[in-house]
Design a protein that fits this description.
single chain; 326 residues; alpha+beta; 5-stranded mixed sheet; 44% strand; elongated
Length: 326
């Protein structure tokens, strides 16, 4: 009986030792795999490249016609992940139009692999240390798009310190952009607006960069514009001026009530030039009087010094009495 129990205990002990040995080998194998997968290894990688560019009159995005092959170093984990994947990964980059050459008279363009290397390396820097682009030339197809030129319109709210004002409209660079898209959609767009620009208590020239408000389905040639506006201190003047009638038939005469108007205007504080009533011409247009079917006509300032701003006339409407010349 003792001999039998001894054999049983030896068998149990032997089984445990074999089990421990198996798990030790399994753990060592697992650690060996982890170590090797963590090590940086040279390999080849396949990608499809989605490129964004600014080719004139073309779509702004395209996908490479074939697979782009590159060589580099990455962890074994990344290599294994790509090896077992059933699809070729895609990579998105931006490349200036100067690198593209037209392959034919159609929509096919190509770019040298070396010119793509910098952008691809930048995108993959956290995954792959790129050595070179094996593919010498990469082809892309950029379809043509309908386009037209539209002006940039400001969406701005600017307030000024007392005795300060803007001298002229806000100026944009560029002041118009090219938009691309379907013809029906382009027909409904006659301008593009800037994002809202809000400046308070301005007391000097302003400038900056603002984005353009996107329009769904339409691509812009520029996404941002530079804006600037001249602002300075002003002085306000007033004077009395007599309007004159233009386009009046020779056999008629017109009496204006009142015959004199009060004019108020502003000029930059730095401009010391004296302004006289003779520097202005305020007119009442006979043709406007006829078309308005009213005896009240708004006088217009047809001539004024270039440095004068915000001209206001009082009253804003003049009573016109037409009669035959005696």
């Amino acid at each position: 009986m003792r001999l039998r129990n001894s054999k049983i205990n030896w068998g149990i002990r032997s089984g445990r030792e074999w089990l421990m040995l198996f798990f030790s080998l399994l753990l060592a194998f697992f650690m060996w795999i982890v170590h090797n997968l963590s090590t940086t290894t040279a390999s080849y990688y396949n990608f499809r490249i989605n490129v964004t560019s600014n080719l004139e009159g073309r779509s702004d995005t395209a996908t490479s016609e074939g697979v782009v092959v590159l060589s580099g170093k990455s962890s074994g984990f990344y290599i294994l992940q790509n090896f077992i994947s059933d699809r070729i990964p895609e990579l998105s980059v931006t490349l200036d139009r100067k690198y593209f050459r037209q392959a034919d008279t159609g929509d096919l363009f190509y770019v040298k692999g070396a010119d793509l290397a910098g952008e691809i390396s930048s995108v993959l820097k956290d995954r792959i240390s790129v050595d070179m682009i094996v593919s010498d030339t990469v082809f892309f197809r950029f379809p043509r798009q309908t386009s037209k030129r539209v002006p940039v319109v400001a969406d701005a709210m600017i307030s000024y310190r007392p005795q300060f004002m803007s001298f002229g409209e806000m100026v944009f660079t560029p002041d118009s952009i090219t938009i691309y898209g379907e013809a029906d959609l382009l027909a409904s767009v006659d301008s593009v607006r800037t994002e809202h620009v809000k400046i308070s208590q301005a007391a000097g020239d302003i400038q900056g960069v603002c984005s353009l408000v996107p329009v769904e389905g339409i691509r812009f040639s520029d996404r941002e514009v530079l804006y600037r506006q001249s602002i300075g201190r002003y002085v306000e003047h007033s004077m009395t001026i007599q309007p004159e009638v233009i386009n009046l038939p020779e056999d008629k005469e017109m009496i204006l009530l009142p015959g004199e108007l009060k004019m108020v205007f502003r000029q930059p504080f730095a401009v010391r030039q004296e302004v006289l009533p003779s520097d202005f011409v305020v007119v009442i247009d006979y043709n406007r009087y006829i078309s308005s079917q009213s005896s009240l006509v708004r006088p217009e300032v047809s001539i004024s010094p270039g440095f004068v701003y915000d001209i206001e006339l009082d009253p804003v409407m003049v009573e016109c009495i037409l009669r035959k010349k005696i």
